[in-house]
Amino acid sequence: MGILNVTPDSFSDGGLHEAYDAAVEHARALAAAGADIVDVGGESTRPGADRVPVEVEQRRVLPVVQQLVAEGIPVSVDTMNAATAERAVELGAAIVNDVSGGLADPDMVRVVRDSGTGFVVMHWRGHSDRMYRNAEYVHAVDEVRREVELRVAELIVLGVRQEQVVIDPGLGFAKQGAQNWEILAGYERFASIGLPVLVAASRKRFLEGVGSAAGSPPKDRDLATAAISLLAAERGAWGVRVHDPAPTRAVLDVWDAWRAARS
Length: 263
Prior knowledge:
Strand content: 5-15%
């Protein structure tokens, strides 16, 4: 899953692809570099970010979604707003990737249920402007797993089909430093829920100084991201969400060749 931030303020590449032409061009580059789906978002969820009006989000996102679908590029829409998700799905988006798991907008459940689209349900404890205040755990893996499982159960009771759901443990969201490594090390606990798992570690702050120099820019975390992608793939992850697909595609191609030689 290649990340396309059509925003001025995303933590890694805010402003680079905000204009329509730049966004479409970058999406094409993501697909050419090996992304199987392009995840289009118009609202930054970096720590401390303020909410964006729905009409602004839609103005950023919907024309890009429409163009990518017309070009045959599979699209997911990264949004917490049901109205944006509904319009994007009508335009051909195949997946709704909601970092709140439908909690930020109660109408999201209706949109996903009625459309039958794929739904990425992330672990969430509040919006970006306050999420670090909620990063308190006794046993991070057990608590995050329990909260994800509970949210999925709620969605199913409300009519979302189990086969629509992909879970995301929410690396970096209401989680500090070492808590993210605990979540990754506990991957099997999330897989044991029995649903596909998305791993979204790309360029996040907890990777700083791991595989790159401390204080280096976020893009220098792409090799560490690719290493996590490989480890996630080995454990059966449904997908990985990355800013630069090329390093991840390279390590996964090597992994595929290795596995093929052993079979």
